[in-house]
Every structure is written in C-alpha cells, then in structure tokens.
C-alpha cells in the first residue's frame, strides 16, 4: 500500500503536468491561429449622440478556430494576457487595422479605437509597435487606445503615457466605473476619453444605485473635460438619458452590433442620416 504522502506528491505532480500541458497547447493554438489567419477583426460604430452620425469605430477581435468554432474575446483575451501572447495579438490587430484603414472615413478625426492591455505599455514595446505600424502609415484617422486595467496596474510604465499624448494618440479608460478601472487611473493616465461600462448603461431607469453612479461618472468627466463614450446602449430610453446628460458618443446594439470590417462601408452608406 502506498503511503498517503506519496499519493499526494504524485497527485500534485500530475496537476502541475496537466497545467503545463494545457498552457503549452494554448500557446501553440494561438500562435498557430495567428499564422493561419484564424483571427478576424470586427468593428462596432461609435455614434455622435446629437447628430446621430458615425464618428468612429472600436476594433474588436474574434477567433474563428476551426477545431473549436468561434471563441469569444472574453475567453481568449484574458488567457492571452496570462500566457504572454497579448502583445503579438495586439500587434496583429494593429497591422490588420492599418491595412484596412481605407474603408473608414478620413474626415477630421474619425476615431479608431483599439483595445490594448496594460502589459503592452511596458518596456517601450507599444511605442515601438505604433512607430513601426501605425505612424509609418500616417493615417488620417485618430487613434484611440482603450485601456482596461484587469490586474496589471502595477506593471504599467507611465512614462509611455506622456510619449503617446505627445504623438497625438488619445487614451481612453475602458470599462470605467467597474472594479477593473479605478479612479487612480484618471490622474496617472490623464485620459482624453472615458468609456462608461455597459453595466452602468444597463442600469439607467432600472437600478437606482448604479444609475446614480452613471450620472456621477458623467458629472466627473464633464468637470475634468474628458470626452464620454457610453457602451452597451441598447434602448432609445438609454440613448435619450445619456444624450440629455451630455454624453457625446454612444455605442451599442441599438445602432449596430460588431460587424466584420468588410461589412462596414455598406453599413455606413445605409445608416448615413
Ligand atoms: P470591451 O472593450 O468593453 O468591448 C465592448 C464589448 O461590448 C464587446 O464585446 C461588444 O460586442 C459588446 N457590446 C457592444 N455593444 C453592446 C450592447 O449594446 N450590449 C451588450 N450587452 N454588449 C455590447 P466583445 O467583442 O465580446 O469583446 C469583449 C471584450 O474582449 C472587450 O470588451 C475587450 O475587453 C476584449 N477585447 C476584444 N477585442 C480585443 C482586442 O483586440 N484586444 C484586447 N486587448 N481586448 C479585446
Ligand atoms: Ca474597449
Ligand atoms: Ca468596455
Ligand atoms: Ca468590458
């Protein structure tokens, strides 16, 4: 009979082995997927609350994995961050976006929002990627970097923030008001844009506490002269409330779901007021 301690050690070893094996395969899957072109860029329009025209897009990544089907970014982005693959993935998003810029309006400051993980801000990697991909293409559109904190606040290199501002890149704090994006970021990032998380938009007219928080976030941004984008706008009532409170830009299923980039020009033509 095996002593308990031996069984325990074997068990721990087996679990560690499993964890490594799954990490290896996930890393391989993503690298393979990148090489095989399995990642596809979608975009979702940003709407001017008053004029109702499209003033930009947010780029959203999708993984069409032939072995597992479509995988949502909420699943693979956190894993990619954990396995140090978020930088190559974001680089891919930048390259693909730049190569499709011609399908977006070039009129003054059309926003192109790209989600960037705080990890990418380390060691000048982001600046290097932007210089070699975005700035070398000299796009007419305005780059807006959307940043979500997740758990990497301490890993940020805030020196890069100043360099980005000087290059004319706008910074947006994503998911503002959730546990992921705290008030201390306002001071550290000096953002041009705040994105109100969709949970706060959903609370309008239904949840007294969170809907009060929404109004306070709006007031805060106005006092600091920061542009506001509300995410997850699904109803006319939400849009009206946000517009009346001075939120400039609205994004959500009410206007358009995220769509493949190639569908955008037709959507724009059909939706123009
Ligand atoms: P996010 O940056 O907050 O993106 C907005 C999410 O809200 C998108 O989910 C979008 O499809 C969804 N959404 C838009 N309008 C509505 C609405 O009216 N109602 C509801 N319920 N949802 C709406 P998606 O595309 O599944 O992306 C999820 C998250 O994955 C994103 O949240 C972002 O954090 C991350 N992500 C997506 N693409 C990228 C990427 O290229 N890089 C990085 N680092 N993260 C990404
Ligand atoms: Ca975002
Ligand atoms: Ca968000
Ligand atoms: Ca989110």
UniProtKB/TrEMBL annotation:
It is found in: Cell membrane. Its main location: membrane. The keyword Cell membrane applies. It catalyses: 3',3'-c-di-GMP + H2O = 5'-phosphoguanylyl(3'->5')guanosine + H(+). Keywords: c-di-GMP, Cell membrane, Hydrolase, Membrane, Transmembrane, Transmembrane helix. The keyword Nucleotide-binding does not apply. Residues 23-272 form the EAL domain. This is cyclic-guanylate-specific phosphodiesterase. Coiled coil: none annotated. It is an enzyme of class 3 (hydrolase). Its EC number is 3.1.4.52. It is a multi-pass membrane protein.
């Amino acid at each position: 009979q095996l002593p308990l301690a031996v069984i325990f050690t074997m068990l721990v070893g087996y679990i560690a082995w499993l964890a490594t094996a799954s990490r290896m395969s996930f890393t391989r899957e993503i690298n393979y997927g990148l090489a095989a072109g399995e990642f596809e860029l979608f975009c979702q329009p940003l709407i001017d609350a008053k004029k109702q025209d499209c003033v930009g897009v947010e780029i959203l990544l999708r993984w069409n994995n032939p072995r597992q089907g479509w995988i949502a970014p909420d699943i693979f982005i956190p894993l990619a961050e954990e396995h140090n693959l978020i930088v190559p993935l974001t680089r891919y998003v930048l390259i693909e976006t730049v190569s499709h810029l011609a399908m977006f309006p070039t009129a003054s400051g059309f926003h192109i929002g790209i989600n960037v993980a705080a990890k990418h801000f380390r060691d000048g990697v982001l600046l290097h990627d932007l210089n070699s991909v975005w700035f070398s293409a000299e796009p007419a559109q305005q780059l807006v970097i959307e940043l979500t904190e997740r758990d990497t606040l301490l890993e940020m290199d805030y020196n890069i923030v100043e360099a980005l501002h000087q290059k004319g890149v706008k910074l947006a704090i994503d998911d503002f008001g959730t546990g992921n994006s705290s008030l201390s970021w306002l001071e550290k990032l000096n953002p041009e844009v705040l994105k109100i998380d969709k949970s706060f938009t959903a609370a309008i007219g239904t949840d007294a506490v969170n809907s009060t928080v929404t109004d306070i976030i709006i007031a805060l941004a106005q006092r600091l002269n920061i542009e506001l984008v509300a995410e997850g706008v699904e109803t006319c009532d939400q849009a009206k409330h946000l517009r009346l409170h001075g939120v400039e830009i609205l994004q959500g299923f009410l206007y358009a779901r995220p769509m493949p980039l190639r569908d955008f020009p037709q959507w724009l033509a059909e939706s123009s007021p």
